[in-house]
Specification:
373 residues, alpha/beta, Recoverin, domain 1, Rossmann fold, 3 domains, two-stranded antiparallel sheet, binds zinc ion, metal-binding, calcium ion binding, Isochorismatase-like_sf
């Protein structure tokens, strides 16, 4: 094993309680009252000293970050040290109740009772059987394959919010190959309008009220507003009271992400609608993994959602680009999972350490206790 990757020993020092016992259950049932946080604190205070040692703290992290069978997820020893250092505000090598409450109240609540949204990205005919069908792209993926998987996720998982996104372009949209002569190409562009082919990146001159230049990959015309190609796949389950988000509606701007256009000049309504519903966790599915799904997941992380990409419910353009996006997304704290594990994640029984870190740090910043090492 790599010297640096030292895993904390787990299991042997766990409390002798039934395997399935979850010390955070009563906290959830009592609606996260401070009294229940006190009980939780006492539970991990093994010596009954009124504070936690590093060992107690380690047991707490192992119990918090565990799966539905209460098996702890491995956490690096140095990560435990870092969490301990950050939670120990007065640096006395002990965690008292007040430190625990301030640092962990919010992260525990998000982990144990998340408010989860399923964001279904662009499951539209043009990406499945139309002008930009994924099966004609380098990875030769079949976009249609996501439909039964997403339907199963909708049926099996109790999401608090479901959102459908639509690529929704006017016919004169900047991203259309057919429109490449409608706008001035910048002198910085390596490809001229005449020489450009589908999938080439060109640089348009931009317009004075938006930006100097606009980099744009040219796609075949697709998802034109109110055309059959822009409809959701006929078999995709439609949920009543869902959130619907339309993107790429400005003729001069493309929008891969369901949160922002590609230049980050204008927001869609998605973030506000999720915040209104107190969403903490965003699960992203749909088309295409390395384009609109990845961009949506990136912005979900940036907007402070714990973010999960359900891998088997996505199809992409290029295998290489999918791998690159996976690495980038993992680095910023978005995890890739199979749809099988999603039900237990949404109920808060399966609690992943990777998606918890950013909320912990954000909370410390909010209470003015963030002290980077
Ligand atoms: Zn588009």
């Amino acid at each position: 094993m790599n010297e640096k990757i030292k895993l904390e020993k787990t299991g042997s020092s766990m409390p002798s309680t039934p395997d399935i016992y979850d010390p955070f259950d009563s906290l959830r049932r009592k609606n996260f009252s401070d009294e229940e946080y006190e009980n939780c604190f006492r539970y991990f205070d093994f010596q009954k000293q009124g504070f936690w040692t590093r060992e107690d703290f380690c047991r707490f992290l192992n119990a918090l970050f565990s799966n539905e069978k209460r098996k702890p997820y491995p956490i690096l020893s140095e990560q435990i040290d870092q969490y301990f250092h950050e939670t120990d505000f007065n640096q006395d090598k002990k965690i008292d109740f007040n430190e625990f409450l301030q640092a962990w109240k919010k992260p525990i609540k998000c982990a144990v009772r998340p408010v989860s949204a399923l964001v279904i990205v662009d499951v539209q005919n043009d990406f499945i059987s139309g002008s930009l069908a994924l099966h004609s792209c380098p990875a030769n993926h079949e976009g249609e394959e996501v439909v039964p998987i997403i339907n199963q996720v909708i049926r099996n998982v109790n999401f608090d919010v479901i959102a459908y996104t639509y690529d929704w372009h006017p016919s004169n949209h900047i991203s259309f190959y057919e429109n490449r002569h409608l706008r001035k190409i910048s002198s910085k562009s390596r490809v001229s309008a005449a020489a450009a082919r589908v999938h080439d990146k060109v640089i348009f001159a931009g317009s004075s009220n938006l930006t100097d230049t606009i980099e744009q990959i040219l796609w075949p015309a697709h998802c034109v507003q109110n055309t059959p190609g822009a409809d959701l796949h006929r078999d995709l389950i439609r949920i009543q009271n869902a959130v619907h988000v339309y993107k790429g509606t400005n003729p001069e701007l493309d929008s891969y992400s369901a949160f922002w256009d590609n230049m980050k000049l204008s927001k869609t309504s998605l973030d506000d609608q999720l915040k209104e519903r107190f969403v903490t966790d965003v699960y992203v599915v749909g088309l295409a993994t390395d384009v609109c799904v990845a961009s949506t997941a990136t912005h979900a992380v940036e907007n402070n959602y714990r973010t999960v990409l359900i891998e088997d419910a996505c199809r992409g353009v290029s295998e290489h680009a999918i791998e690159v996006k996976r690495i980038e997304l993992n680095q910023i704290g978005c995890i890739f999972v199979h749809s099988d594990v999603v039900p237990a994640m949404v109920t808060g029984e399966d609690r992943r350490p990777e998606i918890a870190r950013a909320i912990f740090v954000e909370n410390l910043k909010t209470i003015g206790r963030h002290r980077p090492r």
